[in-house]
Write a structure and sequence with these properties.
Blueprint: H1 3-37, H2 41-45, H3 49-54, H4 62-70, H5 73-83, H6 92-104, H7 108-117, H8 122-147, H9 167-198, H10 200-213, H11 222-231, H12 233-245, H13 251-263, H14 267-274, H15 281-302
Helix pairs in contact: 1-7, 1-9, 1-12, 4-5, 6-8, 6-15, 7-8, 7-12, 8-13, 8-15, 9-12, 11-12, 11-13, 12-13, 13-15, 14-15
C-alpha cells in the first residue's frame, strides 16, 4: 500500500469522524458558555446539597459537581479551589469520593451528544452516568468509612491559572480543543490501521474477548472500547461512529461499548488529574473500573433490548 494512498484515506476518514463530532459538540459548547455567563449553574446546583451529604461530602460541593456535569472537570476544579478555604478538614477519602463523582459524570451535554451520535439514548446514557456516579460514590464512601481508610487531610497540589474571561480567548481556546480532537482521532485511526496491518488488532481482540464478552461486547468492538477507556469518551465515540457507519459493529456492541466508556473513560489521565486535589489514585481507579465493569455486564444482559435508539 502506498503511503500517499494510506494517508489520504486516513485523513478523509478522520475528517469525517471529527466533523460528525463537531456538529453535535459546538452547539452544546456554546450553550454551556451561556449558562456560565448568565450565572445559571449555581441555581441548578442547589438541589444537590442533600445528595452530597449522603455520600459524605459537604453540601456546598454540589456546586463543584454541577459545574463538572454542565461544563468540564477543569472548571469544576477551579470552583473547588475557590471553595476550599470554607471546607475545613477535607480528607483524602472525601477527595476520592468527589473525584469519582466528577470522573463518572462530567461534561454531560457535550459527551451525551457524542454518545447519541453513536446510536444510543442521550437521556439514557446521561442518567446512567449521573446515577452511576452517585451509586459508585456512595458505595466507596461506605467502604472507606467502614474501614477507616484515607482519613488523613487531602493535599491540594494544583492552583489553576486565572481564567481570561474574554469572548475571544474562549473562542480561541475552544477552536484549539477542536483542532486537537482532530489530531488525536487522526492519530488513533492511523494506529488502528497499523495494528491491523501487523495483525496486532486480532491479537488484542483474542486477549480481550473473554473479559469483554462478559459485558456483551464482541471482539470487533474490543479495540475501540479500550481506546475510549484509556483516551476518552470523545475519541472512543468518534471511532465508534466511524466503525458503525462502516457496518462493523452490532447494536449490542455499540450499546455495551458506549455504556462502559461512559462510566469509565480516560482512566489514566483523569485518575492522575484527581491526585492533584488529594484523591487516592488507586481508590479512584479501582472504584470506577470495578463498578463500570459490573454495571455494564448487567446492563448488556437485561437492558439491551429496551434501549431506545434514536433514528
Amino acid at each position: 500500500m502506498k503511503i500517499s494512498v494510506f494517508l489520504t484515506g486516513l485523513f478523509r476518514d478522520a475528517l469525517g469522524a471529527s466533523l460528525a463530532l463537531f456538529k453535535v459538540m459546538i452547539p452544546i459548547v456554546v450553550l454551556v458558555k451561556l449558562l456560565k455567563e448568565f450565572g445559571l449553574i449555581a441555581p441548578l446546583a442547589a438541589p444537590l446539597g442533600p445528595v452530597m451529604e449522603a455520600v459524605g461530602l459537604p453540601a456546598g460541593l454540589g456546586l463543584v459537581w454541577a459545574t463538572a456535569m454542565l461544563s468540564n472537570i477543569y472548571s469544576a476544579l477551579v470552583v473547588f479551589q475557590a471553595m476550599l478555604p470554607q471546607l475545613g478538614l477535607f480528607t483524602q477519602a472525601q477527595a476520592t469520593v468527589l473525584a469519582v463523582l466528577m470522573l463518572i459524570a462530567h461534561n454531560l451535554l457535550v459527551e451525551g451528544q457524542v454518545t447519541k451520535s453513536c446510536g444510543v439514548s442521550f437521556l439514557g446514557q446521561n442518567a446512567l452516568r449521573a446515577g452511576g456516579a452517585l451509586a459508585c460514590a456512595w458505595l466507596l464512601h461506605r467502604v472507606l468509612q467502614a474501614g477507616g481508610w484515607l482519613q488523613d487531610p487531602a493535599l491540594m497540589l494544583w492552583n489553576p491559572p486565572a481564567e481570561d474571561g474574554s469572548l475571544v480567548s474562549w473562542a480561541v481556546g475552544e477552536a484549539r480543543n477542536l483542532g486537537w480532537i482532530f489530531v488525536i482521532i487522526f492519530s488513533l485511526m492511523g494506529l488502528m490501521r497499523v495494528l491491523n496491518l501487523l495483525g496486532l488488532t486480532r491479537l488484542m481482540e483474542r486477549l480481550l474477548t473473554p473479559l469483554l464478552k462478559l459485558m456483551g461486547i464482541g471482539p470487533t468492538a474490543a479495540t475501540v472500547t479500550v481506546i475510549g477507556m484509556t483516551m476518552g469518551l470523545t475519541y472512543g465515540g468518534g471511532l465508534i461512529i466511524h466503525e458503525t457507519r462502516a457496518g462493523h459493529l452490532s447494536r449490542r456492541d455499540v450499546f455495551a461499548s458506549v455504556s462502559l466508556m461512559s462510566l469509565s473513560h480516560a482512566l489514566i489521565e483523569d485518575t492522575l488529574l484527581m491526585t492533584l486535589i488529594g484523591a487516592s489514585a488507586w481508590g479512584t481507579l479501582l472504584a470506577r473500573l470495578v463498578f463500570s465493569l459490573v454495571v455494564t455486564a448487567i446492563l448488556s444482559r437485561v437492558a439491551v433490548r429496551r434501549v431506545a435508539v434514536p433514528s
